[in-house]
Amino acid sequence: MTKCPPTIALILIGAPGSGKGTQAKLLQERLGFIHISTGDLLREHIKCDSSLGRQAKIYMDKGHLVPDSLVLGMLFERIAKPDCASGYILDGFPRTIAQAEALETFLRDKTVLIVVNLHLKDEQLIERLLHRVSCERCGTPYHLLYAPPRVQGVCDRCQGALKPRSDDNEVTVRERLCVYRAQTAPLVAFYEAHESIHTIDCSADPSAVMAQILALIPT
Ligand code: AMP
After folding, report:
1. How far is the CA of 56 from the centre of ligand 1 (A)?
2. What is the DSSP secondary-structure string of 184-212?
3. Contact in structure between 177 and 64 (CB atoms under 8 Å)
């Protein structure tokens, strides 16, 4: 009898603006793994005006983390879907040690975790976030100075409208970076102790960063 290969969960840790979403999209195309962004899942709930979305929005608008009582069930329900069986990319989860522990308990050794820490200096993070727009329809990200669309305000891929995120303003960006330092950065030491973690300098071109991540994926 042939044994199913284990599921691979690629965890992207990194401050806001480090390029987790960009890398997750590129890797999804390359590997066929499902891209799961807890931020996107929460924004979908806000768009649908669900009760979860209305509660989450209060925290997101301030740049604070949404409580685990709202995030964990939503994420685990998504991971359990059959399309995640061969592999998935977690973008923005876990964001605290408590979330990382909850994930380990949920997965119970059934999954190979590959943890990547995307590193970038604070000034570069802020510069990226304040010039970031993405397509409302397909989510393709752009940087208005370094990777602008061909036509201003219009997505190259699907002609959708390009918009900045409501939490990409200077006040909320600074708060999100503080929250990252206090609550998410300790995950690096956590994963050093529990699994291995690979730190990658993500100031390079996105395709060069992706090549370094791809080299970590078992074939
Ligand atoms: P992101 O799209 O990953 O930058 O997330 C946007 C916002 O969604 C964050 O600033 C948080 O308010 C919320 N959020 C996303 N993922 C999580 C998570 N794993 N835990 C708590 N809040 C989250």
Report:
1. 9
2. ITHHHHHHHHHS-EEEEETTS-HHHHHHH
3. no
Beta strands in 19-64 (DSSP E): 34-37
State the distance from the centre of ligand 1 to the C-alpha of 65, rounded, in angstroms. Answer: 6
Residues with CB under 6 A from ligand 1: 16, 37-39, 42, 59-60, 63-66, 71, 92-93, 95, 99, 176
Residue bearing the CA closest to ligand 1, atom 6: 39
Residues 37, 22: Cα–Cα separation, whole Å: 11
Q: Is 95 a catalytic residue?
A: yes
Give the model's confidence band at 57: pLDDT under 50 very low, under 70 low, under 90 confident, else very high: very high
Verify whether residue 78 is a known catalytic residue: no
As a whole number of angstroms, the distance between CA 30 and CA 106 comes to 27
Q: What is the pTM of this model?
A: 0.92
Distance CA 100, CA 70 (A): 15
| Residue 89 confidence class, pLDDT cut points 50, 70, 90 | very high
Question: Is 132 one of the catalytic residues?
Answer: yes
Q: Are strands 132-135 and 141-143 parallel, antiparallel or unpaired?
A: antiparallel
**What is the C-alpha separation between 201 and 204, in angstroms, rounded?**
7
